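Format notes (please read before filing issues)

Several people have asked whether sequences and structure tokens are stored in separate files. They are not. Every record keeps both together, in the order shown below: the sequence lines, then the token lines. Line labels are part of the format and must not be stripped during preprocessing.
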Amino acid sequence: MFLRRAARLFRVSKLRILPVILAVSGMVACVEPMEFPPEPYLEFRQNILSWQIGLTGDTTELLEVEFYFQDGDGDIGRETEDEVFPYVGDSLYNLHFHLLEVMPDSTFRQVYYTDSMGTDYPVEYNYHLHYIEPVNANNAMSGTITWVVDDFPSTAFFMQGRRVCYSIYLYDRALHRSNTIYTDPIQL
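Then the structure lines:
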């Protein structure tokens, strides 16, 4: 009995459903596209720490960093890593992580490694962020990226007992540099 009554209530003629479809599509068409500046903008979201158990039973600490991004002209990432011009110097790679030590007074200090000749180099990880396809009519985009920090196991070993964080920034294809964000401190 209940099913018959429900069926009668929901029977709608094709002529009545057409105005509903038109009204809904009209509301969707009225949604304005996102608008952001052409320079990429980043916000740190979270560190995701995990451990991987090796064949010999040893554990390796792993780190993923999640951050939010937005870009007004939708030119984040590159289609291939082989693209060179006009990407030179710091913009040759489009995603940069710099290792920082968190001092007792909560300030940051750049971490350096020394090569066999005694030259100090900052510990930084430079990556190629792959092409992200814009989905809006004006190409503006936003979303969340979760990035695996490849060399974190060696960093965790090298910096054992210290607090570290990463500064992160990126370049878009028009060579606009984003703001710099900082991960939460990580006790190693």
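For reference, the curators noted about this record: The radius of gyration is 25 Å. The mean pLDDT is 82.
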